[in-house]
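Entry 14. Ran structure prediction on the chain below.
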Amino acid sequence: MARLVTPSQTVGPFFHDALVPFDRAGIVAGDGVPGERIVIEGRVLDGAGEPVPDAMIETWQADARGRYDHPEDDRADEMGTPGFKGAARVPTDRDGAFSVVTIKPGRVPGRGNAVQAPHIMVSVLGRGLLKRLATRLYFADEAEANDEDAILALVPAERRATLIARADGVGPDGRLYRFDIHLQGNDETVFFDV
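Output, structure tokens:
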């Protein structure tokens, strides 16, 4: 008797179009939110360096004071920062590009009262992925804080560059940072188990 092999269950070709509504503009922090306004621009690329035109990027971050817009963050003297959502969900376009308008996050506490470097948590979802890919975005101009970050220290030194966003000029919405996400290959982004 022949044994049938069936493929794993993956999200079908409808993935990108089925995820509405979401904020195609990727605006985490509106005008007037305290902190340095920044724009994260990047592309999602496959193992061959080709763009992934139908992925979705989710981000989650603290505000400029290092507070999360979440009820479990008991450090906040008041709930939330007006105009700050703390999260975004944006699609990639046909060139695999995405953009998120936000503010640079402050440092947040980690284990043992250590302070983490400013970072943004990033998830990638898409067709063919059985579960989301989770990573972090750190900032190249926060070298001293990055050197003190316990999570970044877990990543082998030769792979840390895959988690670092580089300043790339200034645009109308703030300082630009470049952060490309490579799903596979020699430049594969470091992804964390969640």
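Helices lie at 15-18, 143-148, 150-153. Will compare against last week's run tomorrow.
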